[in-house]
Amino acid sequence: MHKVIKSVSLDKTPKIIINPEIHIEKPVIKEGQQAKIDLEMEKACNAIIEEQNKKAAEFIKAAELEKEDILKEAEKQAEFIILEAEKQAETIKTQAYDEGFQQGHDEGVTAGLDDIKQQMQVEIEEAVEKAQRIIKTAEQQTKDNILKAEQQIVEIAVAIAEKVIPQQFNEMPMLVLPLVKSALEKVRDQENLNIRVSPADYELVLLAKYEFQMMIGKENAIVITADKTIENGGCVIETDSGTVDARVSTQMDVLKKAVMDVI
Fold first, then answer.
1. pLDDT tier at 5 (50, 70, 90 boundaries)?
2. Sign of the Cα pseudo-torsion (162, 165, 167, 169, in order)
3. Are residues 70 and 160 in the same domain?
4. Which pLDDT value is given to residue 7?
5. Do residues 254 and 183 both lie within one domain?
6. What CA–CA distance (Å, rounded) separates 55 from 162?
7. Looking at the structure, do residues 214 and 157 belong to the same domain, yes or no?
8. What are the two backbone dihedrals, phi and then psi, of residue 222, each rounded to the nearest 5 degrees?
9. Which residue, 122, 145, 171, sits at the end of a domain?
10. What is the pLDDT of residue 206?
11. Rg of the chain on CA atoms, in Å
């Protein structure tokens, strides 16, 4: 029995497939919500400023107490040096007198007294010069200790800030938004902007993209990317003309250099 194969009719008329247009709504931040966000950011910033001011006051107080202790110790050292110099001068004076007096009996009272006076004068001048050198050295050492203490205080303060500030950004991620805005202000005249932020801040910054675009007056100029080399709370903005480095570590380096230049 033969199999029957039916012919298949092919419709060669081209078909048009319509690709539905996909609309992506831009995130809209309502006025009341924006005010709430701004208020939270302001409170968070004020809390950080208040905490840092408190720590700064504590460091200053500790520094003043340490300076007082150093100065008191230097004064004690100076008094001790002067007292020892006076004792040494008196010993030399007595020894010179005894030797001169004995020599006076041997060579004549008049010649002996002259020798005593001359030797006493030389020994006393040498003792005074030695005491002055020791005092000068002690004063310089005191100044060096104070300067060293100030540098240590600055280093401790910066180390604490380097630890506290990133923690604040971790606890309050919204703080990254005003930092990005501040960095954008420096390059708002550029056409193409690539904002690189930490992966933890990426979603939050992406939601604020429309707000950033409205701020600089360009809708298509901003690209936001996640970069694991950037710590939380910081950003790097790349433009056709250059780069704005607003990472937390970079700003801490600038702060440390500025403080060290002052002292």
1. very low
2. negative
3. yes
4. 41
5. yes
6. 13
7. no
8. -105, 130
9. 171
10. 93
11. 40
Do 130 and 77 fall within a single domain?
Answer: yes
Tokens of 144: 């060096």
Distances (CA, A) of 122 to 18, 96, 101, 244: 113, 10, 17, 70
Model pTM score: 0.42
CA-to-CA distance for 154 and 56, rounded, in angstroms? 10
Tell me how far apart the alpha carbons of residues 261 and 255 are, in angstroms, rounded to a whole number.
10
- The reply to whether 57 falls in a domain is yes
139, 171, 203 - which closes a domain: 171
**Cα 17 → chain centroid:** 62
Domain of 232, in residue numbers: 175-262
226-236 residue pLDDT tens: 999 998 888 99
- Taking only the tens place, the pLDDT of each residue in 29-43 is 455 555 665 566 566
What are the tokens at 209? 């993209």
Computed from CA positions of residues 133, 138, 141, 143, in that sequence, does the dihedral angle turn out positive or negative? negative
**Domain-embedded: residue 11:** no
